[in-house]
Amino acid sequence: MIQIGVARKDINPSLDVPHAGWGAQTHIFATGIESDLNTTALYLTDGVTQSLIIDLDACLFLIDQSNEVREAVAEATGIEVADIRLSVTHTHAGPIFWSDYYKSGAEARKNYFQYMLTQTVDAALEAKQGLVAVTVEAGSGECTVGKNRRQHLDSGRVITGYNENGITDPAVGVVRFEDAAGDVVATLVHYSCHPTTLGYTYQLHSPDYPGVTKKVVEHHTGGICLFLQGAAGNIGPGPEGFLDNFPATRRIGTILGAEAVKVSLELGANVLEHEFEGVTESGASLGIFKTTRPIIDQAIQAYNTVISLPLRKLTPLDEAEAHYTRVSEELTRLQAGEGTPEEISQISFQVKRAFLAWDTSRKYNGMTHTRIEVQFLRIGDLVLISSPLEPFAEIALHIKAHSPYRVTLFSGYSNGHLGYLPIAEAYPQGGYEVDTSPFAQGAAEYFMDEITTMLRSL
Fold first, then answer.
1. Where are the alpha helices (DSSP H) in 365-438?
2. What share of the chain is helix, strand, coil (3-state, %, to 5)?
3. Cα gap 181→433, rounded to integer Å
4. Of 328, 368, 362, which Cα lies nearest the Cα of 348?
5. Distance between CA 370 and CA 362 in Å, rounded?
6. How far apart are CA 433 and CA 420, in angstroms?
């Protein structure tokens, strides 16, 4: 029998923590908070195996930062680090705490990270208390708000925009945890789409559309909802992305939430058992049934592995660092009052690109391969998979198509961030995801094969 506990804490930043990090933005700090950012912990145990899923309204964690949070949670709760999944919604309208991309607010950034860590530990501890026996049901629906974002211009250039003919993954994965009374204790919603409706001119901290989705699900089903980002490396909100478009954010989040609610309610009806009790005579002869809601005896299987992926040839570290230092100093000078908004915007995107190149070279300097931690959590015919990547949607589609389980929910954006994982055919095309990826062409195909082999062996 599976028991769970769930708890949530806010992780709202102070306004002296740098905001967002778009290359085109001219501001450093937000002017306010659109709605609460949260860290949510879901603890699961069958009496033998225990697991913890943490959902944070954040963009990303570095591997070292993720390890620090997971280790702190492990020490406080007694759960093994390998059994703790630290996932982010990947909102691009939240605080920057993973880099010194902006020199301003360095101390506030460090303080904010510690605050998030403390709140996450507290949520995990609270989740482990007051356990409730539940039945776990999983299913999927369909939502088309996620669009392929690798737009091909007539010039041959690939930009991050809207490709109406590109591949997407419209599946909405839903996991419903309900108690013996039929009340929802927690819901997992899984979907693949970059939270980038709130773009470079937006100046409020916000969880973007996943925040709306969670509220919609909680309002209509009860319990606490966690959002798990899927394989969104080449998926975004389409032509309504990258602007101050909160109406689109609200609409996209609501559409996705409504589909998740529909799936959840259908799952709740599926577990009911109906026994015919007899006939009551009325205007018609009425068949009367007794309805019961059993708690199904289920078990948890957790498994961790490491997959070694090949790296591409990167810009030499000294060259990348020199370029980043040069453009960063120029941005600092312009932001100190010597530049116009147009000048700041022009140098800002150069700094962002230079920072990404330098940071990638710094991470993988002298390496030919890097280790990818992959987590598997299986409950019956449901399996959750997580990785510290930004995978293309084709990867998730392939894994699902070759999985022996009825519901397979594959995610990136978990336990740190190691970069984009594009499919092989994207490499000759170029574009942001390919240009910034540290991985060699063919790494995604090797990764898919390894995952599907492991799924068959679980």
1. 393-401, 432-436
2. 35, 30, 35
3. 47
4. 328
5. 13
6. 6
| pLDDT range class, residue 370, cuts 50, 70, 90 | very high
Phi, psi of 256 (to 5 degrees): -65, -45
Chain position carrying tokens 């591949």 = 167
pLDDT of residue 188: 98
| CA–CA distance, 86 with 120 (Å, rounded to integer) | 10
Encoded amino acid at 176, one letter:
R
Q: Which helix (H) or strand (E) holds 146?
A: none
Residue 169 has pLDDT above 90, yes or no: yes
For the stretch 256-315, pLDDT in tens is 999 999 999 999 988 888 999 999 999 999 999 998 888 788 999 999 999 999 999 988
- CA quadruple 241, 400, 226, 255: dihedral sign: positive
**Cα three-residue angle 227-448-263, rounded to 5 degrees:** 30
Q: How far apart are CA 159 and CA 432, in angstroms?
A: 7
Longest alpha-carbon distance in the chain: 87
Residue 270 to residue 46: CA distance in whole angstroms: 22
Percent of the chain topping pLDDT 90: 82
Nearest Cα neighbor of 215 from 261, 170, 263 is: 261
Is there a contact between 9 and 39 (Cβ–Cβ < 8 Å)?
A: yes
Name the DSSP letter for residue 23.
T
Residue 64's region, left for phi above 0, alpha for psi from -120 to 50, else beta, is alpha
Task: Say if CB 19 and CB 315 are below 8 A apart.
Answer: no
Regarding pTM above 0.70, the answer is yes
Q: What secondary structure letter does DSSP report for 81? A: G
Q: Is the pLDDT of residue 100 over 90?
A: no
Q: What DSSP element (H or E) covers 371? A: strand 369-379
Q: How do residues 206-257 score in pLDDT, each as one tens digit?
A: 999 999 999 999 999 999 999 999 999 999 999 999 988 899 999 999 999 9
Is the Cα torsion angle 124, 130, 136, 137 positive or negative in sign? negative
Whole-angstrom distance, CA of residue 126 vs CA of residue 117: 14
| Model pLDDT, residue 25 | 87
